[in-house]
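Newbie here. two chains, one complex. Structure please?
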Amino acid sequence: MAATVPLGLVPTPLYSRLDALSRAKAWTGWAGYISPVVLDTAEFEYFAIRNQATLFDVSPMHKYRITGPDAEAVVNRLVTRDVRRIGDGRVGYAMWCDEAGMLIDDGTIFRFSAQDFRLCCQEPMSGWLRDACWGFDVALEDESDTTAGIALQGPTSFSLLAEAGLGAAAMLKPFDMAVIEPGLLISRTGFTGDLGYELWCDRDRVAALWDRLWAAGAQWGVRAVGAEALNLCRIEAGFIAAGVDFQPVHGALRLHRGRSPLELGFGKLVHFDKGHFNGRRALLRQHETGCAHHLRRIDIAGFKPAQGALIYHRKKKEVGHVTSGVWSPTTKRNIALAEFRAPFGKDITDDLWVEIYVSQEGQWDRRIVPLAIVDAPFFRHARARATPPGPF
Amino acid sequence: MPRDAFDVVLLGGGHNGLSAAITLARKGRSVCVLERGDRTGGMARSTQIALGVEAPEVAHLLYNLGPRVARELGVADLLETPPLPTVSLAPDGRHVVIEGDAARFADGTAHPDARAFTELSARLRRFAGILARLSLKPPPELDGGLTDMATLGELAGLARLGIDLKRLGRRELREFLRIVLGNAADLVLDEMPDGPLAGALCADAVRGNHVGPRSPGTVFNLMYRLGNGGAPRLPRGGMGALGEALERAARAAGADIRTGCEVARIMVADDRVTGVELRGGAVIAARAVLSSAGPLQTMVMAGVGHFDIEPLRRLRNLRCKGTVAKVNLLLRGAPAVTGLPDDMAPARLLVAPSVQAVERAFNPVKYDELPVAPVLEAVLHPPAGDGRCVLSVNVQHIPHTPAGGWDDAARDGLTGRTVAQLAAHMPGLAALVETAQLLTPADIEDRFGAPGGHWHHGEMGIDQILTLRPANGLAGYRLGVRGLYLCGAATHPGGDVTGLPGRNAARQLLGDGII
């Protein structure tokens, strides 16, 4: 077992590498592990993600392996989407709900075969998955502490891989995965909306993998990044974050804090026609009677980040709030994810206003600025989807 | 061959399955009852202990089958028997006779605690009567909001309950709230010293459940037993006659009753029940399936993948440790009870000499051990023509499977202890025994499919009654899949031979408009 450190957190196998690179010494806890908030400055790291290649330690991610004759049935009953439509060797983004249709967590499903799946997610899920497996012929293994991961993201990330001798990843289309070398699984996935890969291996081999990527990355501008820069990118890509844009319902203490995939705008990932899945009946009811909330991407006038701001209809009636709001340096827009009380945000989308408080050298001012609802992700780039990926 | 199809298929031909069948068939629905065994009636049926001699296989008395429901089910005439007195046998021979709210010594002299008993008993009965109202309807769900007619109806029912409680008066209401969650030992010993009378009350408070008199919630259990006045009754013709009468009523109403039919699988398509498949492969189509099997067993029969993970988890953790064994003794002649006039013999005989003795008898079952001096409830049935008679005995606080298993030694030991315990009051009993039949909780599970061998298919406790029976979110008898319902003792209002779970489930099904 790894030694504990004064922070009260466990170092990941990459902590020594990160600590050596960290100027900011800004750490946070992620699933009990030490994880960097910022290593240098968030701005440098953000621009590295969008213009170069970056490494982020995703080892703390919870990873569960479900294997056995009934594995597909278990996973299909667990998540709202139909995993039979995910091909072998593919990764799918998925959500899973409680019996009331409220989101427990979201994550990625690695489908090795109909008998072999890996679930990657933010929240600890061991007990829940054990319950989900009961009555089925499957084995459940918690791989969280044995499998480590590195997210390699950015436009030069493929060039870096090729430089490191992993050019075989060229054939990976978005959401493909393959064992590129014995013991090294690479998936073309990420949390940035850009070209990128995630590399998975045993925890005792991950430090060597990091060194290999780092050594190959000098001419591709490789940088290590922390959670803050990544957060900017994920909002640009329009991805939601647990505990921020929705409250994982198993952790919510108060009533009615849960949100359904339909309310979060992921109706396309709820496949009512696939047979029973957890929360299906409740979601079907909601599908018929309507959502109570709508999470939407919004574009806000001005340039002041609107994190936490309240939203009004006709500047009078409070109808929602911003859950994630940032100034997007790449798209040069003031973007956010916002939760509306239905019917606002879906049936009523005009005359909506954001109330932002700004301080100008100590003098506070209140600005009421209009917002526009946006369907597409804020940041999209063809390079993220090109296969094989072009050199930068 | 005609297609085998019904509006409703019922799993299990026990008293609850039959009650549901009667209720549905009377409403003109086509009903098929499938019973795994060769006879219907469930735990209310009789068994042949010797050629020509019938004995109640499990249940031997009725408590909670009220007149209204008995009329509805067409079995009211069987209940026109006088209630049995209860005799709590005392080691010193000064047995206590309980008739209704009155208690006296068997020799006719006044019992010093008679007044305390009458007051306590009348109060509990009053409280129980109010709660009993709730048993006639599915428990309130209140999830429809104030614009939903069903919810408004439930609220009206709750409001009536509130008014009834209010009408008790401030003092009595406070008393109700003080005791309702408490334990029977404290309640009883506050009113009288320990002894056979207190022991009898506490034995009734724990009967059928995995609790002792000091366990919380036993006051509620006592009230539940008193819900219809609490007078134990032997139906005319014996317990088996009730099961037979229910079967006759169901057939008369048009139900198709098939024995020797074990359901292998409940068929589901598009989140809707479509019928059942029997062991052997035959298929019976149905628009609704009502199961009086255990809730978890029912889910497994349909395939657990059709259910949400939470209800499955709750049902996996349902508390259902069976704790009552049944001993039926065939006697060569009627035994005499020392200190009891002969005309008192057709009584409910209790061996529960004190609260402490009942609590002490409960201790071993916690460790899967057998009690040395178990609490007994015995009924001496009227002799057959040749003078032989049946003594049927419920032996409380017996583990489902004792450490070491139910080998012959354990079985004989239990029967022997039961006989010895009774022989203390019935000299020469052992020599009268011609045949002894024992059903352990494990046997009851095997024979009747009751989860854990539990009389009530699930412990009756504050955490498993009303809206929480069998588990949170499942109180409406519905199991999630459209058309699939529970109708056994694990559902509201619970165990005992009442027919209520079956009747209520059938009414819920009709109300839901599925068929």
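Moderator note: Chain A has three domains: 15-61+145-237, 63-142, 292-374. Chain A touches chain B at residues 73, 77-78, 98-99, 128, 131-132, 134-136, 275-276, 278-281 (CB under 8 Å). Thread marked as resolved.
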